[in-house]
Amino acid sequence: MTSTSTNRCDHVYVCNFDAVELDLLYELARDARNSLPDPEDQIEEGSWADAIVKLDAKMTQLFHKRRQ
Question: Which distant-in-sequence residues (6+ apart) come within 8 Å of 64 by Cβ?
């Protein structure tokens, strides 16, 4: 695992995941997103909920890209 500094966040970590691990991360992100109190609520930038929403969006995009 390697780490690099960026302006958007403190660090970016690069890891290798196999297909099953990626599917698991996608499902976990979906479950976390679906467990947020109300999707219509305003989410505070930088909050845990904000990170969950962003992770879910990334994992959903990757999930669909892998299925093409």
Answer: none
Dist CA 6 CA 18 (whole Å): 26
What are the pLDDT digits (tens) for 19-42? 999 999 999 999 999 999 876 778
Between CA 29 and CA 63 the distance in angstroms is 11
- Statement: the pTM of the whole predicted model exceeds 0.90: no
CA 1 – CA 15 distance, rounded (Å)? 5
Which positions ≥6 away from 66 have C-beta within 8 Å?
Answer: 19, 22
Which residues lie below 8 Å from residue 59, measured CB to CB, with a gap of 6+?
Answer: 22, 25, 26, 29, 30
> CA–CA separation, 8 vs 24, rounded Å?
26
